Amino acid sequence: MKKPIIGVIPLWDEKKDSIWMLPGYMQGLEEVGAVPVILNLTISETVLKQSVCSFDGFLFTGGHDVNPKLYGQEKKDYCGEICETRDLMEAYIFLEAVLNQNKPALGICRGIQLFNVLLGGTLYQDIPVEFPGTVNHVKGPPYDVPAHNVRLLSESPLCQLLGKEYLEVNSYHHQGINKLAKGLEIMALADDGLVEAVYMPDRFYVWAVQWHPEFSLKDETSKKIFSSFVGSVEKSILQKDYI
Length: 243
Ligand SMILES: [Mn+2]
Description:
Elements: E1 5-8, E2 11-13, E3 18-20, H1 23-31, E4 35-38, H2 45-54, E5 57-60, H3 84-100, E6 105-108, H4 110-118, E7 123-124, H5 127-130, E8 148-152, H6 157-162, E9 166-169, E10 176-177, E11 185-190, E12 195-199, E13 206-209, H7 220-242
The structure holds manganese (II) ion.
């Protein structure tokens, strides 16, 4: 069988005027049987339209803060840098590929925040300011070590996948979900109540996590998350072939 080809949203370095990529995203996908391809950072509708058709699934990577305008708020001083091109490009791909064509998608860090905003939810622009609590979500390097616990909701597909109720995760995010969007269901919560994983029950496969499995590829959990995504992409290809 042809390996699934996954479009990976590029990272953007404004200072270097460069797109770039963390190898963990690519390795994480490749190790479980996919062919990952870094997309161009573009808002060309022609290119995006063809990308949506050509790729079997999409990985929404970490990165810049989502523009608060998209959830009806002014950008506060403590909000981080934004990347308007990413906001536009990812909104297009999410709408066309995920919502209209039901293609599988995995969101990581910015990915979970973006999905929530595009579906009508809001974010904390800075967790330490707007949602201070007992859990440190903004842990510095090294990024592959656990930072805090999450509780997996027992009926959630993530809990079923991992077969446990508690998980230690890394944490390298200063924003997070405030108002949860309609259409998303919670799969994991931190001890302070912050949403750490979600999915869309009415889509073939849309999962997102607030932590970084791409930094912890040696963990079985991270491998299982990438594997469940790529497995669902394979299944979606088979289903289309039979229709
Ligand atoms: Mn966290």
